[in-house]
Design brief:
alpha/beta, 5 helices, 125 residues, 21% strand, single chain, Ribosomal Protein L15, Chain: K, domain 2, 5 strands
């Protein structure tokens, strides 16, 4: 197996570098292309990050779903469902709305450890 790495030298945020490296490692260990794809999206330009409002996530998902966003979750809209969301960044307003609805935010590296095969996840971009 050839070990390929994703270029993170142009990233100044150490959190992003660590997350990309961790997702890459989880992808290699479990042969899961999902985590490598998310790592590649995050390693790219910030301009290409997904930015999704919490209301849109709530509208498109069912109660109890786990949603992964390779980018930012913003605070627009209403949350009426208990969801688990994971993203690189989340706004304070989105985090407040999520916790008021009974949902939870899980960092990307933690969700990769919980679901190393990537099953039962919805990826939104």
């Amino acid at each position: 197996m050839v070990k390929m790495s994703i270029k993170t030298s142009n990233k100044t945020d150490s959190n992003v570098k660590e997350t990309v490296e961790h997702l890459n490692a989880v992808s290699r260990e479990n042969q899961t292309p999902l985590w490598r794809d998310i790592a590649e999206r995050i390693a790219g330009s910030r301009r290409n990050y997904a930015s999704i409002n919490i209301g849109k996530i709530s509208k498109l998902c069912n109660e109890g779903d786990t949603v992964v966003v390779p980018g930012k979750i913003l605070g627009g809209g209403y949350v009426e469902k208990k969801l688990k969301v994971s993203a690189l960044y989340i706004s304070e307003k989105a985090l407040r709305k999520m916790s008021e609805a009974g949902g939870e935010f899980i960092p990307l590296d933690a969700i990769a450890d919980r679901e190393p095969k990537g099953t039962n996840l919805k990826v939104m971009r």
